[in-house]
Specification:
The complex is a heterodimer of chains A (about 240) and B (about 200). Helix content of chain A is about 40%, strand content about 25%. Chain A is of the alpha+beta class. Chain A has a four-stranded antiparallel sheet with strand order 1-2-3-6, with helices on one face. A four-stranded antiparallel sheet of chain A has the order 5-4-7-8, with no helix packed on it. In chain A, a hairpin with a 2-residue loop joins β4 and β5. About 15% of the residues of chain A have low confidence. Chain B is about 65% helix and about 0% strand. In chain B, about 45% of the residues are buried. The chains are: A alpha+beta (about 240), B mainly alpha (about 200). At the A-B interface, α1, α3, α4, α5 and α6 of A face β1, α1, α2, α3 and α4 of B. β5 of chain A pairs antiparallel with β1 of chain B.
Chain lengths: ~240, ~200
């Protein structure tokens, strides 16, 4: 076993060692920098396998966990050797901490606001779920200026698409963003949206995707246009 | 479900807004805050990772009520041991999912089953805002990318990785299931993960 102990990195990262081998290999990791590095990389890889199968947790889980957290004492940090002091990051993190505290308060307010609108959104969410689960669902994405990003899950058979926009600047004053389904005959309006100060939105598009080769986004005068009056700021190629 | 006001037909109602884009805290940032006892940071981190933790535990454990117990243990353990998280050794996401997978495996192996214990699943009052839809789309993209990356593996590499990671078998059990020598399974599992690492562009 010791001869090729280094090849156990894969089985270790996949948690495929039995308990005894696991302890044995962990002792080896303390002494073998190369294996420790490889294990770190392979664990980052298996974490991707895990993230890829995420599903919404049961709705009451959050409250139960938070209640338990409320009454759970945190472990003591590992002391840095020879210093007997705090972990090295605590000092330089303090200003960042203050900034995050503010962000957290802001995010809480937003969540509260949208929870109030939930009823109206539930029906829409059911349609979102359907699009995501459609057998012909297809994923497309596009990047715009300044890190703006749009991703869509499209189901041509349902004639619907779920669009997620992130890091997009608000449309200029007196203007709005308009969505288009683009085919050989031109562009068909597919709805309008505005971007809040978070720079993001989600939209559900309906339309005839037969023959459409892209979803386009343009800036239009407030109220929208029957056909595009400017070059697209985003084009999501449907790859048909 | 959207942060921006959605306009139907007719005149749009516009509001003056500050310029876009508050910088987002990363999972690492949040976990370091949690380590300092910040419960609000914990709640935000929870909303980001609970679906991933639940997904991976369900895959391995399968039984819903047992999965819920494990997930709850893991998520509380994240709070309790955040003080031990060292960002120089890997990301918060990897740290949490590694812990989740390990606990799921422990549960499957110890087999101290409480299978008939039933857990009431509460009301289906889901939080449906931007984050949730965006997360769904994110997972769909991630799933597709991983599916494609798994497709780049040899049959034996892929089976070895999937049987170990998603089904929770030891490499000895995998060798048995695939009727393949132990040493071969061990190396294929490693080769497969290395190939996945490269296909997914994983950096630590």
């Amino acid at each position: 076993m010791t001869a090729d102990i280094h090849t156990l990195t894969g089985a270790y990262a996949a948690d495929a060692l039995d308990d005894e081998e696991r302890r044995f290999f962990e002792r080896h990791l303390d002494d073998c920098g190369a294996c420790a590095q490889e294990v770190a990389e392979l664990q980052a890889t298996t974490a991707r396998l895990g993230a890829a199968v995420a599903v919404p947790p049961p709705p009451d889980l959050r409250a139960r966990v938070l209640a338990e957290v409320e009454r759970t004492r945190q472990d003591k940090p590992r002391m840095s050797p020879g210093r007997g002091g705090r972990p090295s990051w605590t000092g330089r993190l303090a200003p960042v901490a203050a900034a995050f505290a503010l962000l957290v308060v802001g995010a809480g307010a937003v969540v509260g606001y949208y929870q109030g609108q939930m009823g109206a959104l539930e029906e829409r969410q059911a349609r979102v779920d359907e699009v995501m689960a459609a057998p012909d669902a297809r994923m497309v994405e596009s990047h715009g200026e300044d890190g703006a990003m749009a991703r869509a899950v499209v189901s041509p058979s349902m004639g619907e698409a779920v669009l997620v926009v992130d890091r997009m600047a608000p449309a200029p004053s007196e203007h709005t963003y308009e969505l288009w389904l683009i085919d050989d005959d031109g562009a068909t309006p597919a709805g309008m949206f505005d971007i809040g100060d978070t720079g993001r939105t989600t939209q559900l598009l309906s339309g005839d995707f037969d023959g459409a080769y892209a979803i386009g986004v343009t800036v239009e005068p407030m109220g929208g246009s029957p056909e595009p009056t400017s070059d697209p700021v985003m084009m999501l190629e449907l790859g048909t | 479900m959207d942060d921006g006001a959605t306009h139907g037909d007719g005149p749009a109602r516009r509001r003056l807004r500050p310029a876009a884009g508050t910088p987002a805290a990363t999972d690492d940032d949040l976990l370091l805050e949690v380590a300092r006892g910040d419960q609000a940071a914990y709640e935000r981190l929870f909303d980001r990772v609970a679906g991933q933790v639940y997904g991976v535990v369900r895959r391995v454990v399968r039984d819903p009520s047992q999965s819920e117990e494990v997930v709850q243990e893991v998520l509380v353990e994240v709070w309790r041991t955040a003080t031990r998280f060292d960002p120089t050794r890997g990301s918060a996401g990897t740290w949490i999912l590694t812990m989740a997978h390990r606990r799921a495996i422990d549960r499957v192996r110890s087999e101290q089953s409480s299978r008939d214990r039933t857990h009431r699943v509460g009301s289906s009052q889901h939080r449906r805002d931007y984050d949730e839809v965006a997360e769904q789309v994110e997972v769909a993209f991630e799933h597709e990318q991983v599916r494609r990356a798994l497709g780049s593996l040899t049959e034996l590499q892929r089976e070895a990785v999937e049987l170990a990671y998603y089904r929770g078998h030891t490499y000895r059990e995998v060798a048995e299931l695939l009727d393949t020598p132990l040493g071969t399974v061990k190396t294929r599992m490693r080769d497969g993960l290395i190939r996945l690492r490269d296909a997914l562009g994983v950096a630590t």
